Amino acid sequence: MFGKRPPVYRNACWEGDHKRVPVRVDVEGQAVCPWVTWFVDVATKVIVGVAVTPHEPARDAVLAALRTGISRADPYGPFGGLPGRVRVDRGKEFLCRTVARALGGFAVPVEDLPAYTPYRKGTIEALNSAVEEMFLVSLPGYTRRARPVGVQRPDEVGELLSFADFVEALLGWVRWWNTGHRPSGLASGLTPMAAWEVDPTPVEDVPEEQLAFFALEDDGRVRKISTSGVRWRRRFYIAPWMVGHVGTRVRLRYLPHYDGQIEVFLAEHPDHHLGTAYLAEEATLEQRRVLASVREKKARALKADLKAAEKLRRTRYTATTTPDVPRPRRTITGQQARAEIACAKTGDLAARALPDLIPPRDPPTGWTRPRPASAVRPRPDTVPRPPAPDDADGTAPASQTEE
Fold it and tell me: Does 78 sit behind a cis peptide bond, omega within 30 degrees of 0 on the bond before it?
């Protein structure tokens, strides 16, 4: 038995959630199941914000969905504005410090529901079920489709939708939900868009200049623009507008988990946006595919080595029927044991002999650097004294005469 909350007005509360889409799509030649992060208005059933990722979402997906939900400019409007509160279910991406700081800037509280209580946010849970029953089952690559007995072959990658086509189809369904569908929870058979328009509650809009960098983080360091661009995370970022700004002190903001581009701001005026900078010498798609293949082979080799090492680590003993000392099933010679021990020691020494394997990061500009040895003056008490001159008669001092 579950009770129902009293009816509210538009933007009084939003509910947000992640959903793993049971549809395999093509992402650079690999079949993956994407995730969708979205927010729905409880009063009107309007889907206000959507973000799709090819893998498990992080805080950047939450910020992107909130950004599309709050903004009412094209192509996101006319729904949106600031919600009264946001209701989530203890997801770490929704409760992270970045999201709390972004919503806290607009005084929007985040309501954290207890664990394992999906009925407390029934609007978004009903949407998760509706999108699968009404839309996802009709797409190629649907993973929960019934198959003949004994047939387990999944769809080929060439038969699947590309990630871009899937996102376009999903956004089209979202537009249909908002403008053409008539949920049973709305009175008089209204569509979510009609319910939104007939609600007289005023909407609190946010200026676009305040939303331009809503989802960005700031590392808090001051850098300078050089002839090679701006250095961030040991890589350079460049842009045409940097010409004539060499030596300018700047601060950087970036989207969480994305380092393809950064936003550059003036250090003296953090709200003054200079422009966008892009990663210099970015790898091509073919290079990234080859690199992914190399990393996959390395991961398989490491997994095989780990499996073999785990098998060698375990010691099995023979069964006995008499009170005797247990005997191991497999025995090795002393020469084999010495060879394996020597090989392990050699590997440890080789691993320890790489001090520059991970180069240290540059220290902050505010730190005092040590002076080179040539610039350090010796202390007066450590200056060597010149040898004492000999006496006038050619004899050495008394302290240096032989006994």
Answer: yes
Residue type, 349: L
CA distance 10 to 79: 10
CA 346, chain centre distance (Å): 37
- Quick one: angle between helices 59-70 and 97-104, nearest 10? 20
Q: Which of 166, 129, 124, 128 is nearest to 39 (CA)?
A: 124
> Any idea which residue has 């970015």 for tokens?
282
* CA distances in angstroms from 52 to 163, 193, 215, listed in the order given: 9, 22, 15
Helix (H, G, I), strand (E, B) or coil at 321: coil
Provide the residue-wise pLDDT of the chain in tens; the chain has 403 residues: 788 888 889 999 999 999 999 999 998 888 899 999 999 999 999 999 999 999 999 888 998 899 889 988 877 778 889 999 999 988 888 888 888 888 888 889 999 898 888 888 889 999 999 999 999 999 988 988 777 666 666 667 778 899 999 999 999 999 999 999 998 888 778 999 999 999 999 999 888 777 777 778 887 889 999 999 999 988 999 999 999 999 999 999 888 888 888 999 998 887 788 989 999 988 888 888 888 889 999 999 999 989 988 888 888 888 888 888 888 888 888 888 888 888 887 766 555 555 566 677 888 888 888 877 666 566 655 555 555 555 444 444 444 444 4
> CA-CA distance, 357 to 346, in Å (whole number)?
18
* Token pair listed for 78: 């006319």
Bridge pairing between strands 86-88 and 14-20: parallel
Strands (DSSP E) along 281-389, which ranges?
none
With H, G, I as helix, E, B as strand and everything else as coil, classify residue 403.
Answer: coil
Q: CA geometry: angle at 232 spanning 227 and 56, to 5°?
A: 145
CA distances from residue 115 to 119, 121, 330, 362 in whole angstroms, order as listed: 11, 12, 50, 43
What would the two tokens of residue 259 be?
């380092």
| Residue 188 falls in which region: left (phi positive, over 0), alpha (psi -120 to 50) or beta | left
Separation of alpha carbons 296 and 28, rounded Å: 15
Q: Per-residue DSSP letters for 25-79?
A: EEETTEEE--EEEEEEETTT--EEEEEEESSS--HHHHHHHHHHHH--STTT-SS
Residues 223, 250: contact at Cβ < 8 Å? yes
